[in-house]
UniProtKB/TrEMBL annotation:
This is DNA polymerase III subunit delta. It holds the Pfam family DNA_pol3_delta2. GO terms for biological process: DNA-templated DNA replication. InterPro entries: DNA_pol_HolB (IPR004622), DNA_Rep/Repair_Clamp_Loader (IPR050238), P-loop_NTPase (IPR027417). Coiled coil: none annotated. GO terms for molecular function: 3'-5' exonuclease activity; DNA-directed DNA polymerase activity. The lineage of its organism: Bacteria, Bacillati, Bacillota, Bacilli, Bacillales. It comes from Terribacillus saccharophilus.
Amino acid sequence: MLNWAEMSTKQPVVSKMLVNSLKRDRISHAYIFQGSRGTGKSALSRLFAKSIFCKNRKDAEPCNACKDCRRIDSGNHPDLHWIVPDGASIKNDQILQLQKEFSYTGMESDRKVYVMEDADKMTANASNRLLKFLEEPGAHTTAILLTENSQALLQTIQSRCQILALQPLHAGQFEELLISEGLPQSSARLLSQLTQNYEEAMEISGQEWFAKARKLVVQLVEVLETRPNEALLFIHSQWMPVMKDRELQQLALHLLLLWFKDIIYLYADRPDSIIYIQEKDRLENSLRHWTRQRATDSLQSVMEAKRQLDQNVHPALVMEKLTLQMQR
């Protein structure tokens, strides 16, 4: 079970601030945990909630064994509410339901905590409703908003929260950690660019999808270089059947983005920065087909495709548009 000592090795500054607030019993009514994917926002929220609810806590450290701790781990603590996007966004009805739940007294204690994942994906109505909720906080209510970009939240919401920025692990350090766990360097380097969460990295590494996605990226680039007129057919017959949901599509696009990033590294005479280290010969061959500007344009097109997926644009349309842009 994760404890504050372990969390302090990953997020020392944020951990120290939260531990001090627990020891002094000065818990804010609202927090924003900001950090890129894999920095441990959810794990930190769960640990913080345990420390709030645990009746056997020593200083800030929860016991990880009592009923409250076990319920939080299993996701069924009655006074801890976890809100996630309904589809592509967090909707007004979800905040309305949250307000209704919080109008009742706590089931197990006088405290209530809610954690909102991807808080920046709230609709305008949901944001305004949450703002009113934050303006009149309950005496023992704590809100934790998780986001990769706090600037996407209303300024008035930001001003009512304590913003804590989680720092990413250095990719090189994380790569070394994965290698020490037995992963080959080629996989470890790629995974260190996809996530900085150890459990997620190990899970992805063992999935058949990961190997297929890497292969498809190389094949797509090869088709674009040698048979560009067949690229759309490749997308529909090879790419889309494997990328069956938005999460896989996002990860696959990130792998494609890293390929173009590697081409730019070669143009910048930075071969040691290459991510696809086992494909170095192919990458060097790609320089004959991709100018630096074209590789940069393609990288930006992939980033735009990732944003469109987040905005719930149909995946097939996103990939068709991206393919046509890369063909130019």
